[in-house]
Specification:
Helix content: 25-40%
Distance between the termini: 41 Å
CATH superfamily of the largest domain: Type I PLP-dependent aspartate aminotransferase-like (Major domain)
Shape: globular
Strand content: 5-15%
CATH topology of the largest domain: Aspartate Aminotransferase, domain 2
Strand order of the largest sheet: 2-8-7-6-5-3-4
Number of strands: 13
Number of domains: 2
Largest sheet: 7 strands, mixed
CATH class of the largest domain: Alpha Beta
Number of helices: 13
Amino acid sequence: MKLSSKMARCGLSPMRKFNGEAAKTVERGIKIYHLNIGQPDIRTPQAFYDALKSFSQPVLAYAPSSGMPELLDAVRGYYKRIGVELSRAQILPTSGGSEALQMTMATILDDGDELLVPEPYYPNYHTSVTLAGATVHPIPTDPKEGYRYAVRERVEKEINAHTRAILISNPGNPTGSVLTPEELKLMLDIAKEHDLILICDEVYREFVYGGEPLMSALQFEGYEENVVVIDSVSKRFSACGARVGMVISKNKAFMSEVMKWCQCRLCSATVDQVAAAALYALDPSYFDEVREEYRNRRDTLIRKLREIPGVVCEEPKGAFYVMAALPIDDADTFQHWLLSDFDDQGETVMFACGEPFYATPGKGKNEVRMAYTINCRDLERAMDILAVAIEKYNKRQ
C-alpha cells in the first residue's frame, strides 16, 4: 500500500517525540520536569469558563465558516486597542494557530515553491510547508548575534525565483528574539519590493520583557497586500486546549481563497469560539502580572543554565523559550538516556531536541529548546538535575 510521499518527508514533533518513553518513565515512578512543550501553567482566565457555563442553545449547531460574530467583534476590539482597524471579513477563526498555518501554506504555496524562514524555527512550520508541496529555505542566524536576521543583505541573498513568502515568528519561537519596529518595517519592505507575502506568527505578542509596546505587522500602513498574521488564544490566555486561532489579513484575494479551506472543514468549534470571545474582552492589565511571572522564570532559567559548565545560551527577549547548546554529543541520544537510564533522586527532565528546529543539515545536534512554563522553584530543580545528568552522561560516553 502506497502512502503519501509528502507525509513521509515530515517528522514527528520534537516537542512530543518522546511522549511514549516519558509515559514508561512515569510508570517506573520517576518524576519528569517538562521543559519540552509550551504548555503554560498560568491559570486560564475565569471569564472563559463563565462563558462556557452560560452558553445554552437547544441545538449545538455549526458555527459560520467565517466565524462566530461575537468572537470576530471581540478580536476587532482587541486589535483596535493597539491601533489596528479590522473588519469581520479580515479575520477567519481556525482550530488553533496550527490550522491557521496549514491554511496559509496551502493558499500561498505550490509544488516546488520555497518559503524563507529564519532558523532555528518552530518545527511544525516544516510539516505545514511540506504538505503544501513546498520546502523551507532557511535564513541562517547566529546565537552570538541574538539570532538577529532582519538585515537586508542577509535576507535578500536567500530570495530566488522559487520564493513565495517569508515566515517570521515575533516574538520568536524558539529563540525569544524580538524585532524592533525598524527591523519589522524592513521585513515588510523586503516582502513588498519582491512581491512576497510576509507571514507573521504573532501568538506570543504579549510576552516581551524590555518594556516594548505591543507590536503587530498589521500596524504598518501600505503593506495590506503583503501581510498575513497568525494569531491564537493558546499562549496569550493560557488556553491551549480551546484550539482557537485565526488567520488575519487585509488581502482580499488571499482571504477569499482561505475561505475555501474554512468551508471544507465546516467551522472551528462553536463553543470554543464563544468562550474565546470573552478572553479577548479582558482588560489589558491582565497581562501585566503574567508578563512579570514569565520574566522571573526567564531570569531564573538563564541564571541556572549559565551555572552549568559548557552551556551556551542567549537571554531571550520575548516568548517563553530559550535555545541552548549543551556540552554533549547528541541531544536526541541524551534525551533518550535521560528517560530510560537516568534519574536524580527519582526525577529527570525533558526538553525539545534542537536538530528539527533547523533546515540546514548538521545544525542543532547538541542544542535544545526549553520552555519556561513551569514555576521558578521547579525550573531551579530541573537545571540542577540537568547539570548532574550532563556530567554523568559525558563520563559514561
